[in-house]
Design brief:
Layout (H helix, E strand, L loop, with lengths): L7 E7 L4 H4 L27 H8 L10 H10 L2 E7 L12 H20 L5 E6 L5 H13 L4 E7 L14 H9 L4 E4 L14 H8 L1 H13 L2 H4 L5 E4 L5 H14 L4 H6 L4 H6 L3 E5 L7 H9 L4 E3 L9 H13 L5 H15 L4
Parallel strand pairs: 1-2, 2-3, 3-4, 4-5, 5-6, 6-7, 7-8
């Protein structure tokens, strides 16, 4: 790639699930179940027909399925050493109401991802699903992914759940304890939009602009004020898909409230002010290369270049050509030093996911 002095490592790519395949990977009571095709395994993210939007508005897109061979071609195209794969439909796992089904589906997804991706190409790494509806079971699956599965390097906390709780609630402590003990990073990945005050929007672009960053802001606020990073100081959590431009704003906003008359209890309870947790090793965030003109600079000024992750987001919004051209433009630009570029496109992913 022109201008490249190093290879790339993709910190956030995606798989496109196949329900007929997934159905074959269930265990226990659901093993060998009949799959009734009119209904999907995962619930809808929010009622928007996203695949139809893409097919209608971007008819030239080669879109429909992924497999290890397709992903291998993408890695070759962008000169990437590897990619960490996140779900697509599985981002709705937290919306499953039946807790037993949520646990079984998380396990089945992880079986499927391991068998058809991680074992097929050693450059492909998996982020496992966690049924946070049952934290003890989620902790067991986290340990299984760390100790028994091939190439699993992180676990997903659904950014939106129907539990009525966010991740500062102590019911989630078993997950954090297992993650810290087994040095397994966690990630929140924006996706569902329902319930954030813009269900009345009728144009998907409006929804898409807000649905990723808002739940990340909510979860980060509760995790900091709930004391997650005090009780689990070695826990690493990435906040993905919302870009990084929101980070300086949240640092100022959370500190403002912490120092205000309303923050008296928080000042007595927390060991550090909110921005210090965000500057530390607990907090990581993904960037969009389209942010490089403005927001990325502010984020680097606020937290440094060592905890910002590159995400191709393939095969979601960017086309293959856009992924390649954005990388080339970024590498050829004079806005950032070679060391900063290497941090953002390679080193940080290896460090966050423990691949050094």
């Amino acid at each position: 790639m022109p201008g490249a002095r190093f290879t790339v490592f993709d910190g956030d790519g995606h798989v496109l699930e196949n329900d007929e395949q997934l159905a074959r990977y269930y265990e226990g009571d659901y093993k060998g179940m009949r799959f009734f095709k009119p209904w999907s395994i995962f619930p809808s993210l929010d009622g928007w027909a996203r695949g139809v939007v893409l097919a209608k508005d971007d008819p030239d897109r080669k879109y429909g399925h992924t497999d290890a061979k397709i992903w291998g071609g993408i890695l070759d195209m962008i000169n990437a050493e590897g990619s960490v794969l996140y779900p697509t439909a599985g981002l709705a796992l937290g919306l499953i109401t039946d807790h037993r089904w949520a646990v079984a589906t998380a396990n089945a997804y992880d079986n499927w991802l391991e068998d058809l991706y991680c074992k097929q190409d050693r450059r492909l790494y998996g982020v496992g699903l966690l049924a946070v509806q049952e934290p003890e079971e989620a902790a067991k699956e986290l340990i299984r992914c760390r100790t028994q599965r091939t190439n699993f390097v992180g676990m997903l906390l659904p950014s939106v759940t129907n539990t009525g709780k966010t991740y500062g609630d102590k019911s989630f402590w078993p997950i954090y304890a297992a993650a810290e003990k087994h040095d397994m990073p966690l990630a929140l990945h924006g996706a569902p939009s329902r319930g954030f005050g813009f269900d009345h929007f009728r144009e998907f672009a409006q929804v898409h602009a807000l649905e990723h960053p808002l739940p990340l802001m909510i979860q980060l606020t509760d995790m900091i004020y709930g004391g997650v990073f005090d009780d689990f100081p070695k826990l690493k959590v990435a906040y993905l898909e919302g870009g990084c431009g929101w980070v300086p704003f949240m640092m100022d906003r959370l500190d403002y409230e912490y120092n205000s008359v309303f923050g008296i209890k928080a000042r007595k309870r927390l060991k550090k002010k909110p921005s210090d947790y965000i500057r530390g090793e607990n907090f990581w965030v993904a960037m969009e290369l389209g942010e490089r003109e403005l927001s990325l600079k502010y984020a680097i000024d606020a937290i440094g270049s060592e905890k910002i992750l590159y995400a191709s987001d393939y095969p979601h919004e960017p086309t293959n050509a856009a992924i390649k051209s954005e990388l080339e433009e970024f590498l050829e630009s004079n806005q950032y030093t070679p060391q900063v570029k290497k941090n953002l496109l390679y080193t940080n992913m290896k460090r966050f996911y423990g691949l050094n």
